[in-house]
Design a protein that fits this description.
10-stranded mixed sheet; mainly beta; 9-stranded parallel sheet; single chain
């Protein structure tokens, strides 16, 4: 009870991995199979993986890199970061930020109560993307030549997209709590953005930005 034990385990790259525990700080690297990790207290780091990738921690951050497949990650009180990953992605936390960068996906859902959301990735044709936060900002970097319909709603924040040629109502006419629709290009992808107490910012990927 007064000591901890570290395990370092080498397995074949193809082997599926499942780890469950109450106080597990877990790092998985270089595997090509399915991965499932669940912990009550402890960070989870997954580098690699193919197929179904699941990481759940209550008191710990969850980090996923270079995965391919269906990725489902959640945390109650820490941040979530997903990088260089392709496939369907679902990320949810209560008290923490969610950051997705270098993403290639046609289906992404991110939700947090007290935290910011950042998305830097693809907008696939006929793809579906849903980002919601209660007390936080949403920042989305939109790729060049992307076509999407943006449904934006904020109650106590503002909406900005100065670097994008959006078609829709003037920003000054968007009322608090009312959903506004904007179209970029043909509007193929569907993007839903909602924040109660924060701002929503759309920016062209690679464009110069400044912090609030």
């Amino acid at each position: 009870p007064s000591e901890s034990v570290d395990y370092e385990i080498s397995v074949p790259a193809w082997m599926p991995i499942r780890i469950d525990g109450h106080y597990n700080f877990t790092t998985i690297e270089g595997t090509q199979g399915e991965i499932s990790v669940a912990s009550v207290r402890g960070d989870i780091v997954i580098k690699g993986g193919t197929g179904t990738i699941t990481g759940k921690s209550i008191e710990g951050q969850v980090i996923v890199e270079n995965a391919r497949g269906k990725v489902t990650v959640s945390s109650a009180n820490e941040a979530i970061k997903v990088t260089a990953t392709s496939g369907e992605i679902s990320a949810e936390t209560t008290n923490g930020d969610i950051t997705l960068t270098r993403i290639d996906s046609a289906s992404v859902e991110m939700a947090t109560v007290n935290g910011d959301i950042v998305y830097d990735g693809s907008l696939a044709e006929r793809g579906h993307y849903r980002f919601t936060t209660h007390n936080g900002d949403i920042t989305m970097l939109v790729p060049e030549n992307a076509s999407a319909t943006f449904s934006a709603r904020t109650y106590n924040g503002d909406f900005s997209a100065s670097t994008l040629p959006l078609k829709g109502p003037p920003r000054s006419e968007v009322r608090s709590g009312k959903r506004a629709l904007y179209t970029l290009g043909s509007g193929s992808a569907e993007v839903e953005l909602e924040s109660f107490g924060g701002a929503i910012r759309l920016r062209r990927a690679g464009a110069a930005t400044s912090d609030r």
